[in-house]
Design brief:
The protein has about 325 residues and is an alpha/beta fold. Helix content is about 45%, strand content about 15%. The strands form two sheets. The chain has a six-stranded parallel β-sheet, sandwiched between helices. The protein has a six-stranded mixed β-sheet with strand order 7-6-8-9-10-12, sandwiched between helices. Helix 5 links the parallel strand 1 and strand 2. Helix 1 packs across helix 2 and helix 1 crosses helix 3.
């Protein structure tokens, strides 16, 4: 800065005002300073400026997994909208969902100097009934039952699952089987609860729940069991990747989709339209989830009030070729 000031024939304070975009600097002087900056290759030290302002223009993200579709697409959306607002993203992935790991991640982000944190809470903590976060940190939580303590942004899992079940019942199926996600997942739990509630409201039998781990192979194993159930004509699968495994198993066992068994997934991943047959599924708006996370963070940073509790993003059913009317009793017993 001293070199620039000397080359431009101004004070270091004037160089600082130009660097910070002070409108009080007259245009002729501003141009002299900018010319000297270009000639000397001067760039303001953003780290030093951030320390002075206490504004680091960085959002930390703590996530439990980089393997799940929802987490990756939510993270992508957060990074996109943060960048559009002039913020960088610092990511801390956790090996295991423990209280100590979460605390350690917050300590690390504090050392890296972030302005706020988005916590993508896909799973229950293994060693704590509830999460305790540092009180001074501005936090928005994704996919959690954090209650009113934090601002939570999530897909309306309950609405999406009920829509899937009702779609199958309206097609004439007597009941709907379910392949759930892992037991420790918040989203899997909410989808399973909504599946059961929708069946009970209609007075339908609730079949035994089958459980997978989000991966296609677990869906395949569940599909083999469902293929041997003569009364199974409709299946709601907790994500599209497991639904792919279910479709494969039904095909291998000679159970035609949707003529004999209808299948609905959840997520609407890009590949779901290319499944055989193309998959009916529940669309999640991950971009909107990411946008709302960043919006809530920016409002907190501006000192605006951000209420605790859940902000839910609606889902919509995308009907494709994997669902159809329930086969007649005669056709199912032939």
């Amino acid at each position: 800065m001293a070199d620039v000031a000397s080359a431009a024939g101004v004070s270091s304070q004037t160089v600082s005002r130009v660097s910070n975009g002070d409108p009080a600097v007259i245009e002729k002087t501003r141009q002299k300073v900018l010319d000297a900056m270009r000639e000397l290759g001067y760039r303001p030290n953003s780290a030093a400026r951030a320390l002075k302002r206490g504004d680091f223009r960085t959002i930390g993200v703590i996530t439990m997994s980089l393997s799940s579709t929802g987490n990756v697409r939510t993270l992508e959306a957060i990074a996109k909208y943060a960048s559009g607002a002039g913020y960088a993203v610092t990511l801390i992935p956790l090996d295991a969902p423990t209280q100590d790991n979460v605390k350690g991640a917050f300590t690390r982000l504090d050392e890296l100097a972030v302005d706020a944190v988005v916590l993508i809470m896909e799973v229950h903590l293994l060693d704590a009934a509830s999460l305790t976060l540092p009180p001074h940190v501005k936090v928005v939580v994704v996919d959690s039952d954090a209650g009113d303590r934090f601002h939570v942004v999530d897909t309306d899992q309950h609405q999406g699952a009920r829509t899937a079940v009702r779609h199958l019942l309206e097609l004439g199926h007597r009941t709907v089987w379910h392949v759930a996600g892992p037991e420790e997942s918040f989203a899997a739990g909410r989808r399973a609860d909504a599946w059961e509630a929708a069946l009970r409201e209609e007075g339908r039998e609730v079949p035994a729940l089958l459980r997978g781990d989000w991966a296609p192979e677990s869906g395949y194993r569940a599909g083999l069991r469902l293929a041997d159930e003569p009364g199974c004509t409709a299946v709601f699968v907790a994500n599209d990747q497991m639904a792919l495994g279910v479709l494969r198993a039904l095909h291998e066992r000679g159970r035609r989709v949707p003529e004999e068994v209808s299948v609905v997934g959840f997520d609407d991943i890009a590949e779901s339209a290319a499944f055989i047959p193309p998959l009916t599924t529940v669309h999640q708006d991950f971009a909107r989830v990411g946008e709302l996370c960043v919006d809530a963070i920016l409002r907190e940073l501006r000192g605006e009030s951000v209420e605790g509790g859940a902000q839910l993003v609606p889902t919509r059913l995308v009907v494709r070729a994997s669902t159809g009317p329930c086969p007649s009793e005669a056709a199912r017993t032939r």
